[in-house]
Amino acid sequence: MNKRQGFTLIELLVVMTIIALLVSLAAPRYFNSVEKSKEAVLRQDLSTMRDAIDKYYGDNDKYPDSLDDLVSKKYLRKLPVDPITDSATTWVVVPPEDPELGGVFDLHSGAPGNGRDGTPYSSW
Predict the structure, then answer these.
(1) Which of 25, 56, 60, 93 has the fewest Cβ atoms within 10 Å of its own Cβ atom?
(2) Is-contact 80 61, C-beta < 8 A?
């Protein structure tokens, strides 16, 4: 008797079905956690930059003229990248009511769309 060793086609199909089932259960959780972490990083970046703007105002009695002033005067090491748009150039600057006080009173994300809580990124 010449007996071959290996897996049958049925065994391979059963294993592939089990793997596909496990992947279909894990994939939505993975992508949900990636989106959740990007939003957490965005909130932290906004908080850090707003704090730097406040410190700049406290030291200079005026707001910075641009976000680059925060970097050049060492209030930030570098301008953070918006995790939703993957760009540091999409920040939306809100000027103060009095233009003589500078150019950056507040900032928001320039990302289109809404967060997981339903609010637009541009309102954060």
Answers:
(1) 25
(2) no
- How do residues 7-34 score in pLDDT, each as one tens digit? 888 999 999 999 999 999 988 888 888 9
Tell which residue, 65, 123, 71, has the closest CA to residue 92.
123
pLDDT digits (tens, 9 = 90+) for 49-102: 999 999 999 999 999 999 999 999 999 999 999 999 999 999 999 999 999 999
3-class secondary-structure state, position 94: strand
Residue whose C-alpha is closest to residue 116's, from 43, 65, 26: 43
Rg (CA), the chain: 25
Among 55, 57, 67, residue whose Cα is nearest residue 91: 67
Q: How many CA atoms lie within 13 A of 54 on its CB side?
A: 6
| Half-sphere exposure in the Cβ direction for 10 (13 Å, CA) | 0
